[in-house]
Amino acid sequence: MLIIFSILIALLPYTAMAAGEGGGAMVENIHWLGHDTFKIVGEKVIYTDPFKIKKEDKADIILITHEHYDHCSPEDVKLIQGPKTVIVTTSDCAKKLAGKIKIVKPGDKINIEGLEIEAVPSYNTNKQFHTKDKGWVGYIFTVKGKRIYIAGDTDYIPEMKNFKVDIAFLPVSGTYVMTAEEAIKAAFDIKPKIAIPMHYGSIVGSKGDAKRFADGLKGKIEVVIPQEE
């Protein structure tokens, strides 16, 4: 379930549709499973960075941003992996996995059965947990005509100014990734129709980080604060 950050809860359906050009309809098909794990249902069933999966499922595509255990978890991948599932990930993560794997690096663009996927840079600028030389990634992919960006574990980076997306999943917890305040700057650069905070409430960060992010964008960019499913 996703809750639109809005003053009047009674106006939720209208607010969702007001996000623009079908954006509201798109978020109805986005499910937050905690941390950076999302299930997105469109032409394909897409999972991002599966971690602490609670029940078995079948993904058509799994997008994994980098090889840290809370993003590349072979045990969790197995819970949602079928014989036709395609895993898109970096070369270091691919070594831990089996099945149909597409290896990408920043700047790569691939097409999986009509689904366009672009790997974009994801790295730290003021810490050393995710250095640029690792070649780790975020993803921009298109579902039902809407461009969705999952940032991965990143800081606020200059490349974001060139991203053109409708929905952006941005980390907000600090420590290993952007703080809420830095994520606000990122959102202003990216200018999505809808911004969704992530990377809190599990390893580090809290709902307070998500709320600060929403407060900073109030009246400027629509923010969806997810409830974990």
| CATH architecture classification | 4-Layer Sandwich
* Radius of gyration, taken over Cα atoms and rounded to an integer in Å: 16 Å
CATH level 3 topology: Metallo-beta-lactamase, Chain A
If helices are DSSP runs of H or I spanning 4 or more residues, what is the number of helices?
6
Helix fraction, binned, reads 10-25%
Q: Please trace the helix and strand order, writing H or E for each element.
A: EHHEEEEHEHEEEEEEHEHE
Q: Mean pLDDT, nearest integer? A: 88
Structural class: alpha/beta
Largest sheet: 8 strands, mixed
How much of the sequence lies in strands comes to 25-35%
Q: In one word, what is the shape? A: globular
Polypeptide structure, described:
The protein is globular. The strands form 2 sheets. An 8-stranded mixed beta sheet has the order 1-14-13-12-11-10-9-8. It has helices at residues 12-17, 23-27, 74-80, 91-94, 180-190, 207-217; strands at residues 2-4, 30-32, 38-41, 45-48, 59-63, 81-89, 100-103, 109-112, 115-121, 137-143, 146-150, 167-171, 194-198, 222-226. The protein has 6 helices and 14 strands. Strand 2 and strand 3 form a beta hairpin.
Topology:
Layout: E1 2-4, H1 12-17, H2 23-27, E2 30-32, E3 38-41, E4 45-48, E5 59-63, H3 74-80, E6 81-89, H4 91-94, E7 100-103, E8 109-112, E9 115-121, E10 137-143, E11 146-150, E12 167-171, H5 180-190, E13 194-198, H6 207-217, E14 222-226
Parallel strand pairs: 4-5, 5-6, 6-7, 11-12, 12-13, 13-14
Antiparallel strand pairs: 1-14, 2-3, 3-4, 8-9, 9-10, 10-11
Helix pairs in contact: 5-6
